[in-house]
Specification:
- By secondary structure, the protein is of the alpha+beta class.
- It has a domain at 10-74: Arc Repressor Mutant, subunit A, CATH 1.10.10.
- The protein has helices at residues 10-22, 27-32, 40-52, 68-74, and strands at residues 25-26, 56-60, 63-66.
- Strands 1-3-2 form a three-stranded antiparallel sheet.
- A hairpin with a 2-residue loop joins strand 2 and strand 3.
- This is AsnC family transcriptional regulator.
- Residues 79-107 are annotated as: Disordered.
- Residues 12-50 form the HTH asnC-type domain.
- Residues 89-101 have a biased composition (Basic and acidic residues).
């Protein structure tokens, strides 16, 4: 039996199941599945939330993959309400200084 956390929704289980069965997938593809009955923006928010808690990981361009933690949850081996990850993986983001030369401000 799965033990979800208060922050989770029924869609989280379905998204994780989809990722486990289909491998890395873009948010749009997940949302188009007949098993998932919510919009693409909702799937995107849920995938982000799952990533914040270590159940998924973003691999780039809106593509997510299930993590070992997510697989353990689906198998009923992890109580999401009690078990918090030691280190939550960070979402991919572009550095603010990328492509800029440091120390030049034009004055």
């Amino acid at each position: 039996m799965r033990h979800s956390a208060a922050w989770m929704s029924i869609w989280d289980d379905r998204i994780l199941e989809y990722l486990q069965e289909n491998g890395p997938s873009p948010v749009g593809e997940i949302a188009e599945n007949e098993y998932i009955h919510v919009s693409q923006p909702t799937v995107s928010r849920r995938c982000q939330r799952l990533a914040e808690h270590g159940f998924t990981a973003r691999v780039g361009n809106g593509v997510y993959v299930i993590t070992e933690r997510g697989k353990s949850y689906l198998a009923g081996e992890l109580n999401a309400a009690e078990n918090q990850p030691d280190q939550i993986p960070k979402m991919d983001s572009e550095p603010a200084t990328e492509g800029k030369e440091s120390g030049t401000n034009g004055t």
